[in-house]
């Protein structure tokens, strides 16, 4: 399977995690880090979820839990429940990730190394999360705070470049030169 890679703006968007265990906790944290409003649906949850700014719907998953949601993540140990979440999401036109089951996903989640504003994502197309995590670790050894500082400096120059450099090609060449000089 070949996936179209994209970065999603989740700021203020309603997302749901079905499952309140450690996998659900990991997924909720990732969504919250990106500004999402997170709802957890589960009969019980790990205590750490109570410390997060999430809404907890206590009980078993029901299809109406997806109402008004932008993204769904199924993180239960029960494949039947996960399949129902995926099918309901599909019917409603909502992207769905099912943890550790790429066959049920309309969206897979890469291993991400983040040094804001830089995010480097590694995906194996669902073939091996362990390999993706290993590669992410190797990338983390290369991409660090100095790159984040450079990214912020270049971001600050973009308005000037749009105003003073007439074409896309001129702006592209200008920024390529700045990057080459900074990283040489």
Structure characterization notes:
The protein is α/β, with parallel strands linked by helices and 184 residues long. The chain has two domains: 1-109, Rossmann fold; 145-183, no CATH class. 42% of the residues lie in helices and 18% in strands. It has six helices and seven strands. The protein has a five-stranded parallel β-sheet with strand order 3-2-1-4-5, with helices on both faces. The chain is elongated, with a radius of gyration of 20 Å.
Brief overview, please?
The chain has helices at 22-33, 47-50, 79-92, 129-140, 145-164, 168-183, and strands at 14-18, 37-42, 54-58, 71-74, 95-98, 111-115, 118-122.
Number of spatially distinct domains: 2
Average the pLDDT over all residues and give the rounded result.
95
Helical residues, percent: 40-55%
Strand line-up of the largest beta sheet: 3-2-1-4-5
Number of helices, where a helix is a run of at least 4 consecutive DSSP H or I residues: 6
Shape category: elongated
Strand content: 15-25%
Q: Please identify the structural class as seen in this structure.
A: alpha/beta
By CATH reckoning, the class of the largest domain would read Alpha Beta
CATH superfamily of the largest domain: NAD(P)-binding Rossmann-like Domain
Number of strands: 7
Give the N-to-C terminal Cα separation: 37 Å
